[in-house]
Fold Arsenate reductase family protein.
Amino acid sequence: MEIWINPACSKCRSALSLLDAEGADYTVRRYLEDVPGEGEIRAVLERLGLEPWEITRTQEAAAKELGLKEWPRDAAARDRWIAALAAHPELIQRPIITADDGTAVVARSEDAVREALARDGRS
């Protein structure tokens, strides 16, 4: 499994601690440094079963500068949202865990981390 993190994020650090406590085999991706492209973001959205606006941190300065709260949230605007996430990775909700079964979760709670572990064949 892979976990997209920002090391400054407390929820990311908590998720890593839980993964370590459970002995999980995972790869860390510091997505602010190793920025996902639009194709990767599309793939993760598909795995999450979410739309790009559902994983966007709308309180970030970049979101306010772009006026994201005013953007339409529909199929026609989907590519625009994905492009914004690729151009401004700090807007991507974190942490995101991709499990080996092809699914993913936004792991902001202990339950979500445990869900990813279960999907990965643990717990």
Summary: The radius of gyration is 14 Å. The chain has five helices and four strands. The CA atoms of residues 72 and 78 lie 9 Å apart.
